[in-house]
Amino acid sequence: MKVLWLQSGGCGGCTQSLLCAEPRPLFDELRGAGIEFVWHPGLSLESGAEALQLLSDCADGTTPFDVLCVEGAMLHGPNGTGKFHLMSGSGRPLTEWVERLARRARWVFAIGSCTAFGGFSASTPGNPLEACGLQYDGDEPGGLLGEDFVATGGLPVVNIAGCPAHPGWVVDTLQKLALDGLTAGDLDECGRPLLYAEQLVHHGCSRNEYYEFKASARQHSDLGCLMENLGCKGTQAHADCNVRTWNGSGSCLRGGFACIACTEPGFEAPGHPFQETPKIAGIPIGLPTDMPKAWFIALSVLSKSATPKRVRDNAVADHPVVRPAVRKPSK
Q1: pTM for the complete prediction?
Q2: Do 147 and 236 fall into the same domain?
Q3: Residues marked as binding for [3Fe-4S] cluster?
Q4: How far is the C-alpha of 228 from the C-alpha of 19, rounded, in Å?
Q5: What is the pLDDT of residues 140-176, one digit of tens each?
Q6: Annotation: binding site for [4Fe-4S] cluster
Q7: Is 237:263 a contact under the CB 8 Å cutoff?
Q8: Most exposed of 70, 134, 184, 316 (fewest Cβ within 10 Å)?
């Protein structure tokens, strides 16, 4: 299966993340599933006129390929011309290249939240870059390719959202496509692969005991739950970050940083500081996705009244200050 990769308006972080693929080196992992790059701007040898000729051959059908992966937002500016981002040496907007190549590809993948939904490039007030995603403009269908776009393989754009996208999400989705096939039933309502988006970041969080008792951290060095005061959106974000860890062991929450829901449309402009939890009458606005507000309030009152001293004291410390009690097992 041949993959063509382009980079548009973004930081290149998804490629940097991809290079950290595990357990085997990236190219060994892909090669094992019969996957190879036709071209990647940062990983391939071809550059300059040679790369441009290769892209032209792909666009006119002379060089066949299967998957078009695009990283970075689509930049329409200024005034719809696309001239904010020209393909070097061609004098033509990258958006035009993407449209041509998408018509040739059997499948189109948006790598990262910028390409999926517009991301940070679209978040500046007024959006002067006129940035959008491949098939979404924020949380609204549309984008560069339009709401009705379907690649020749029968799927709309596959949105491997994240900022950056976890290397496992990219590699596993490519491998599933190559070995088992990918269907519409494998994607959620936003076009994200269910292999990572059917879970919430909250699942597997090392702070879940504190969440259950609503024992909240007051500062980022504390061990307690980060949802009530410090902006954590792990109960709303669709990803498996605490189950499929980063670099073998880490996640934002394990490192003491609140989840900012980087797999969700519009995460980059929440309307408040990332590390603060907006509240109304003391109740966090961002409640878990499937919990009614009244239930949350009732559960919070009950949980806080039953919080063990160990959990309450450890929640506002940077290391465990009270160990779990040791008791003889009951007979």
Answers
A1: 0.92
A2: no
A3: 241, 259, 262
A4: 35
A5: 999 999 999 999 999 999 999 999 999 999 999 999 9
A6: 11, 14, 114, 163, 202, 205, 225, 232
A7: yes
A8: 184
